Amino acid sequence: MDNQITYPYIDTFLHALQPPEDAFLRELEALSRKEDVPSAVRTTARLLHLLVGLKKPVRILEIGTAIGYSALTMYLGSGKKAQIVTIEKDEERFLMARNHFRSYGALQNIKPICGDAEEILSTLTGPFDMVFIDAAKSASRRYFDMALSLAAPDALIVTDNVLYGGRTAREGEPEHKHRTGVKAMQEYLDYLCHDERFFTAVLPVGDGVAITMLQP
Ligand code: SAM
User: Looking at the whole model, is its pTM more than 0.85?
Assistant: First the structure.
């Protein structure tokens, strides 16, 4: 199933409308396509940049670095001010991301960590003002719960891929190979939208983005 969240002509239009302004980010975007590494799509990257610009987080936690595209996007969105900790379990991607942060002169601000997110999260110290969850879909709820204990009371927690190509919203039994991921995302969204500790907006941007704040 192709992405069934928006109409293809809308995706094409928005993709052409908003390329990354930064030349290095455009290179990373092309590299992730060439190497077939998943990175945030342009609409999601724009949203992240905007959220960081509005929220002005001092510390950001990212779960799922890939080759560093979204971390650098958030770094730029913060006016190159935020301190970002980003976790990636794949060593090759971690090394590529670290090289990219170094080439961009951002290693003072962006600290990449190689390892399994759940193991690393249990070793970190908060508070983080913003969290971006973008790793294994079926583990998003566990990442969220662990990130909660590291989050500042006014933190923003952003989760990517919550609509999973549209599968999360479809009625009926999901295809066998997607069943675990779909069920996990359905339960996760139910939790984010109905637990009285949170307030969540789910947006049909990119692969679906949930933006959660903690209720005062
Ligand atoms: N945030 C990146 C961006 O937009 O540029 C894209 C991240 S990609 C969608 C998801 C990444 O999460 C992959 O590189 C994958 O290796 C990593 N990942 C998956 N499971 C993980 C885990 N348990 N711990 C740490 N990283 C994990």
Answer: yes
